[in-house]
Amino acid sequence: MRRLELMKTLRPLDLSLDQVRELLEAIDLATSGEQGPGEDDSALTQLSVVRALAESRVESMRGQIVRLEQLARDLRMIERGEDRAALRRS
Question: Which stretches make up the HTH merR-type domain (predicted)?
Fold first, then answer.
């Protein structure tokens, strides 16, 4: 069940199936405690790459949220007749 939730969470990152498979293998390796020489570094590198991608996507989505919130405020003002020029300024 936990893997299914992880798969759903990964969807916005637009990873290929191979990338998802590699990430799952890296997670398994990093959490198993059974890494051989060099395997730990490879798994941690893979985890770091996907973490950075996720953080980048979060920042992008925050920007989208800010713009959508501003649009909603502008439209609310127009609906109330408070500022008919709000959309022209944007």
Answer: 1-26
Q: What is the pLDDT of residue 63?
A: 95
Report the number of distinct structural domains present in the chain: 1
HSE-CB for 9 with a 13 A CA cutoff: 14
Helices 17-32 & 39-79 angle (0-180, nearest 10): 120
Domain region containing 43? 2-89
